[in-house]
Amino acid sequence: MIEGKNVLTGVKPTGKPHLGNYLGAIKPAIDMGASAKQHIMFIADYHAINAEKNVEILNKEIREIACIYLAAGLNPDKSIFYRQSDVPEILEITTILTAFTPKGFMNKAHAYKAAVDKNIAAGKPNDDGINMGLYTYPVLMAADILTFNTDVVPVGKDQVQHVEIARDIAGAINAYYGKDLLVLPEASFDDNIAVIPGVDGRKMSKSYGNVIPLFEDDATLKKAVFSVKTDSKPIDEPKNPDEVLVYEIYKAVAAPDKVQEMADGLKNGKLGYGHIKNMLLEAIIEKTAKEREAYNYYMSHYDEVQKILDAGAVKARAIAAKTLQRLKEAVFGF
Ligand code: ADP
Ligand code: TRP
After folding, report:
1. Residue 266 covered by a domain
2. Atom of ligand 1 minimally distant from the CA of 195
3. Burial bucket for residue 150 (CB in 10 Å: 0-12, 13-18, 19+)
4. Closest ligand 2 atom number to CA of residue 137
5. Residue nearest to ligand 1 atom 19, measured at CA
6. Rounded mean pLDDT, 105-119
7. How far, in Å, is the centroid of ligand 1 from the Cα of 192?
């Protein structure tokens, strides 16, 4: 489905991803690099400054996310990987897109509306603490996408609307100039990807504080796994696996024969909650050991990561310069 297509995803550097992000978003997006015609992943650092101004924190989060993507298997020979702020053409293209973007689109954009709703709920003025970066964020995101002739943007549900805005802006520009200057992108959202539950049984999410972290030390991982909610049934009482949260999470990480083993052990009262938590911990460690090790390597050899990002920016700028030139010729007539 993505063969022959240009695929692009942006990642905001805002904290280390958890098991749910990793299995639900990072891995699938990276894996697309094997079959896409052009595969781009970038660190959306200009998006991040809307919310994070502290230079030390920002810098740390950018480094962490760069190392995590490489550790998770992003292949810089197949995929273009760069920092948004290293590709200034995107900002020039943003300016052109702005002239074709109805202000009403911004009022309706999901990220802005969510911030307003939060203010209203807290009894504050609608636009309290909302900067123009957040307000116009979908235009920058549109430029991120349209600059690279993107066909497909794999995103979470909350980002689908922003991709539709990019498509509408591209459509408006193409219609005005009467030619296909920009590729119309589509969001791809995979409904088949399982939602991983968090330690309290709700969807694993940063905002619920119920995550199993991946790129922390073993002790932190263990603590999270052992905090997965259970009831107080004794070991020998038979349990229905479908009612056991540890089992639900296990299904997402363990091999089918191990999953069967846990199900059988629960049904016939052979496995208690301590056992199955240890099994879950082992499965997570086994599934992500290579990545966690690679992450630590990259963090302590950041010069290598920097070189990869620099080389990625050179490739990205070559594509971006062509799009910018095409647009300027249409806009200014030369
Ligand atoms: P969070 O809820 O932790 O803030 P985001 O909403 O930023 O996570 O999601 C980032 C990406 O990770 C999205 O593509 C989303 O679909 C995926 N994702 C987040 N939580 C889960 C989960 N529990 N299971 C599977 N995928 C998830
Ligand atoms: N807005 C996205 C998020 O919050 C990040 C992002 C920025 C992005 N530019 C993009 C995603 C372009 C896909 C394509 O997660």
Report:
1. yes
2. 24
3. buried
4. 1
5. 21
6. 94
7. 14
